[in-house]
Design a protein that fits this description.
about 375 residues; alpha/beta; six-stranded parallel sheet; 13 helices
């Protein structure tokens, strides 16, 4: 018997990244007995299915959720109670960027809670991190960074419900190459109709590169504890570039998509800071364009596919930036080792979105929703 999977989404890009691999594998999933459809609205028809997947950002927007901690009187909770009458299994897809921004108060009301990135040590989910993130808490404790408005979304993990918490998949399986194209914008609005095949043009890590270090990113994030990491990284990179007489930049004029890609293809080392969460599109741009990815260590977390391997597919640096200069200096001088890391990263990413990778995703998806 064909099983019906309904997924509640919206037209935002972060949601699209998350559901994109499902869309890519619609036919494969159907051959394996799972009919998947996407919905921008919630009603009895969309709730009636074998598996109901609720993408958090989309649901909050659709029901106009205002509460930071979801109470039993909130529209989200009322939706979950109603959904229980129609859906065979309710699965919450947490689309938040960070490992530690959660809504564990929903655990008693769902059958499964899937998250893109998880802390390896689940006991840490019982700790209230300043700024709502494990790394913002670090900057508060070690650099005295404070927020003007406290982050008050924290709800500890009740270990009685730990069995419901599991790993979904990261945004790297989505469209990291042309996310801002016209066809992609159209596909956001009619996800059940528009299909596509990505034609990614990779740049070999061995390609002649004249830019030592390059990054373009915003640092004016609303929360001090989140913005600090980016601001501090950019300041330190400017100093490193100047004192070591390196080529590259962290600031400059706005670049068109074509100019930006050309710059990445000429870059040796691409630093990628944390933002609202640990992972971002920039990480995958490094893999695609053959630059060596330099990131703050992600040893605290797990994600799938597990392509972020320290000192193998990317080079980690300490959260306090103490080894940043040494890491950059070393890999500028040791070209073969830099290219080796960049090749590993590119190959791991290629494999994750290849036909083999998509088969692995289909297996992963089916195994997760049936947990």
């Amino acid at each position: 018997k064909m099983k019906q999977v309904n997924i509640i989404i919206d037209s935002s890009r972060i949601v699209d990244y998350l559901i994109d691999p499902i869309r890519k594998n619609i036919k494969t999933l159907k051959l394996r007995g799972y009919s998947v459809t996407f919905h921008h609205s919630i009603n009895q028809k969309t709730l009636c299915c074998d598996f109901l997947l609720l993408v958090s950002k989309a649901v909050f927007g659709i029901v106009n959720e205002k509460e930071v901690i979801i109470s039993e009187e909130s529209p989200t909770m009322k939706l979950l109670i109603k959904a229980r009458q129609y859906a065979g299994k309710i699965i919450w897809l947490d689309s938040s960027d960070s490992t530690t921004v959660t809504h564990f108060e929903l655990l008693p009301f769902v059958d499964l809670y899937l998250k893109k990135q998880l802390l390896k040590d689940k006991k840490l989910y019982q700790k209230n991190f300043l700024g709502g993130r494990i790394f913002t808490d670090f900057y508060h404790n070690n650099f005295d960074v404070k927020d003007d408005v406290p982050f008050n979304q924290f709800y500890p993990l009740n270990m009685d419900y730990k069995f419901k918490l599991d790993l979904s998949w990261n945004i790297g399986l989505g469209n990291m190459y042309t996310p801002f194209s016209k066809i992609n914008k159209l596909r956001l609005m009619i996800p059940n109709i528009i299909s596509y095949k990505q034609n990614i043009i990779y740049t070999s890590p061995s390609f002649k590169r004249e830019v030592d270090v390059f990054i373009r990113t915003t640092s004016n994030l609303d929360r001090n504890s989140v913005a600090f990491h980016r601001k501090e990284l950019l300041d330190r990179l400017n100093t490193i570039i100047f004192e070591n007489d390196l080529s590259g930049s962290t600031k400059g004029k706005w670049l068109s998509t074509k100019e930006f890609k050309k710059k990445l293809q000429a870059t040796k080392i691409l630093p990628s800071p944390f933002g609202w969460g640990e992972l971002g599109v920039r990480d995958y741009e490094a893999f695609i364009h053959g630059a060596m990815l330099l990131k703050p260590s992600m040893a605290h977390m797990e994600t799938w596919p597990p392509i972020f391997i320290e000192n193998e597919t990317y080079i980690p640096f300490n959260w306090d930036f103490s080894d940043l200069n040494d890491k950059i200096s070393y890999f500028i001088k040791h070209e073969k080792e830099r290219i080796y890391i960049a090749e590993n990263g590119q190959n791991a990413y290629k494999k994750s979105i290849s036909e083999e990778g998509m088969n692995a995703f289909s297996n992963w998806f089916i195994s997760k929703i049936n947990k």
